User: What shape does this take?
Amino acid sequence: ESQPACVLGVCDGSGWILGPEDVARPCECRARSISRARLRGVASVIPAKYRGVSFQRPPVTEMNEVVVRPVKEFCMDVRANLDAGRGLWMYGGSGTGKTTLAMLVSRHALDAGRSVAIYSLPKLLARIRRTYDAERGEQSYAELFERLTTVDLLHIDDLGAENRTEWVLEQLYALINERYESQRSLVVTTNKNEAELDEQIGARVVSRLVEMCEVVPVFDEDRRWKPGAA
Assistant: This one.
């Protein structure tokens, strides 16, 4: 098959330029192509509200540096952290920026060429429930579980937001324990501290999270509400 044309009209479409003594160097179109692919990856995974998140702009620049620092350090070494199965557990009140910080981790993982899946806990559990309805032709439970346990980074928002039932506890333990045993990274957000989360999702799940994740307390004013706002 023929190569697609170089958008710059420089190379033969392969992304490489052959120089003296048959030494190849990358064409600038290659970097542009990689950049576009990364942007497509971000657009398909990161919710629209968070696609522009950055350590260099608000609301992150307005957050307490003590809160931001461990997240920034994790992102600076994201490849090694994901290879080692390390993750982050962010907890604090509503509107303090937990999800924004977690999205930064997911964004850096995508930029590093890693696979990422992002769910709020209620949506994740609803997705699992839909696999039981074979008539809808949905993805099977086995296929979904495989995806959730093998993706490089699983990002779960609002951990502990669901009512405690035996079914919820079973699903969470099966998922998180499998990722724990295979050393796959997690980033989670919750408004519950360790004791409250233990009560909500069970000691077995929390013990795994403690081993897998660095805890990042996120305490600040609710950034979704400003005095005088409508």
Observations:
- Residues 36-217 form a domain with the Rossmann fold fold (CATH 3.40.50.300).
- Residues 95 and 222 are 4 Å apart (CA to CA).
- Residues 28-45 form the longest helix (18 residues).
